[in-house]
Write a structure and sequence with these properties.
Blueprint: E1 2-6, H1 12-21, E2 25-29, H2 32-41, E3 43-47, E4 52-54, E5 57-59, E6 70-73, H3 84-92, E7 96-99, H4 105-114, E8 120-130, E9 136-149, H5 163-175, E10 179-182, H6 186-207, H7 211-216, H8 218-237, H9 246-256, H10 264-271, H11 281-291, H12 296-305
Parallel strand pairs: 1-2, 1-6, 2-5, 3-9, 6-7, 9-10
Antiparallel strand pairs: 3-4, 8-9
Helix pairs in contact: 6-8, 6-9, 6-10, 6-12, 8-9, 8-11, 11-12
Bound molecules: NADPH dihydro-nicotinamide-adenine-dinucleotide phosphate and ketopantoate.
Pfam families: ApbA, ApbA_C
EC number: 1.1.1.169
Function: Catalyzes the NADPH-dependent reduction of ketopantoate into pantoic acid.
Length: about 325
């Protein structure tokens, strides 16, 4: 199996690195700055599951790209358009794209451009970040990927003739020690993550504290529950087949995670990096307006984070 990673950051560097470490043929498509870092230092991963350093196969030119079975797409949402030329080249030669971005709208963007036979649904649970030197730091035991074919893709869905590639990918993740689930309803899984993450990241970024601090304070805890309900209503009106007790499940999960856990959005805010608020909280506000669902919690949080959206250095 040949894998190309676009976005060799905290997520792509971690999962791509684990696959490469397990002997899978992995190529990282990188831009100039990341190329320099990775060539000079190697891909250094500091992880709760064990540290490792690799000198991965790096490519900076479209003409040097290998033919890929799977593209692991792990750029930030605001960088998605910049990845189109490389995706065009890889999909044009038959690759399937597994996006690991947070949010839900990128799936429409990708399927409109490449169709459902070339785009999988996917989501990941991991707490990882890049140091100033470009090393990946993975801080909690979670390293889970859920993926599957999208509605409309009969080739790779259960019973489809192309299903074998997805099973091969699941096998590759298992070899790499990564927890992976081949989902039969990936949109439901993606929306469950979106309900959880968009609320969790909104509250941790706006309070500027990990979840423990949020839950200790009754007012903030109630706001978090309100956020979960707002985004859950959107999902229901959109007809996503979520479990009936989703709000309780999400709140339970939030109460059970480590009190020190925070979101990538909060970490990005602290580092002065651009924020994915348009893809997360802004998307909730926009969908709410379109569907006539009030999202007062998200409206306020989106506005309060907006001055920081472009980060200190811009995008
Ligand atoms: N970090 C986490 O804990 C989690 C993150 N996620 C989601 O995963 C996605 C990725 O996040 P994360 O890994 O944290 O982000 P990072 O910023 O750590 O990594 C993104 C990488 O993408 C690279 N990149 C951007 N555009 C391109 C391009 N056109 N071609 C090649 N490389 C490109 C950037 O490199 P450069 O700009 O230097 O070229 C950077 O190295 C986000 O949607 C995030 O919400 C999901 C779960 C957990
Ligand atoms: C839910 C969580 C914290 C872990 O995957 C995440 O996705 C993020 O911080 O972006």
């Amino acid at each position: 199996m040949n894998v190309v990673v676009i976005g060799a950051g905290a997520v792509g560097g971690y999962f791509g690195g684990r696959l490469a470490q397990a002997g899978i043929d992995v190529t990282f498509y990188v831009r100039a700055r990341r190329f320099k870092q990775l060539r000079e230092r190697g891909l250094q991963v500091h992880s709760t599951h064990g540290d490792f350093t690799l000198h991965p196969h790096l490519v900076t030119e479209l003409s040097d790209l290998p033919k890929a079975d799977i593209v692991l797409l792990a750029v930030k949402g605001y960088h998605l358009p910049s990845a189109f030329p490389v995706l065009d080249a890889l999909v044009g030669r038959g690759a399937m794209v597994l996006p690991l971005l947070n949010g839900v709208h990128h799936i429409d963007t990708l399927t409109e451009r490449y169709g459902t036979t070339h785009v999988l649904g996917g989501t990941c649970y991991i707490e990882s970040t890049l140091t100033a030197e470009g090393d990946v730091v993975h801080t909690s035991p979670m390293h889970d990927i859920v993926f599957g074919s999208l509605p409309g893709d009969s080739l790779h869905s259960s019973g489809g003739t192309g299903r074998a590639v997805l099973e091969q990918l699941q096998h590759a993740f298992a070899e790499a020690g990564v927890n992976s689930t081949l989902s039969e309803d990936i949109l439901v899984d993606m929306w469950q993550k979106y309900v959880f993450l968009t609320s969790f990241s909104a509250i941790t970024a706006s309070v500027r504290a990990p979840i423990g601090k949020v839950l200790q304070d009754e007012v903030t805890r109630n706001l978090l529950i309100q956020l979960v309900k707002e985004v859950e209503s959107i999902a229901r009106v959109r007809g996503i087949g979520l479990p009936n007790d989703l709000v309780n499940q999400v709140v339970q999960r939030l109460c059970n995670v480590s009190p020190s856990m925070t979101s990538s959005l909060h970490r990005d805010l602290e580092k002065g990096m651009p924020l994915e608020i348009n893809e997360l909280q802004g998307a909730a506000v926009q969908m709410g307006r379109q569907l006539g669902i009030a999202t007062p919690g998200f409206e306020v949080i989106y506005a309060l984070l907006h001055p920081y959206a472009a980060g200190q250095g811009g995008r």
